[in-house]
């Protein structure tokens, strides 16, 4: 049974690992922003860039799922 679902398990593990990586990056950025004297504008810009990167990853996954389902 495991060999039949190996690709699905691998995909889920990869997506989970990338989500954890985004979480750790967010925590590291929050720590750096708190320890430095970063103005509010800079904080908003940093979080916007991080959010757009995460949103791009999620959009890629959704597009890939629709693309594979259509074929």
Automatic annotation (TrEMBL):
InterPro entries: DUF2788. Keywords: Membrane, Transmembrane, Transmembrane helix. The chain crosses the membrane at residues 12-33, 45-67. Pfam families: DUF2788. This is DUF2788 domain-containing protein. It comes from Pseudidiomarina fusca. The lineage of its organism: Bacteria, Pseudomonadati, Pseudomonadota, Gammaproteobacteria, Alteromonadales.
């Amino acid at each position: 049974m495991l060999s039949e679902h190996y690709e699905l398990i691998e995909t889920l593990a990869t997506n989970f690992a990338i989500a954890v990586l985004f979480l750790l990056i967010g925590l590291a950025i929050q720590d750096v922003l708190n320890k430095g004297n970063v103005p509010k504008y800079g904080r908003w810009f940093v979080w916007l860039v991080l959010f757009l990167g995460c949103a791009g990853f999620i959009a890629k996954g959704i597009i890939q799922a629709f693309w594979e389902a259509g074929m």
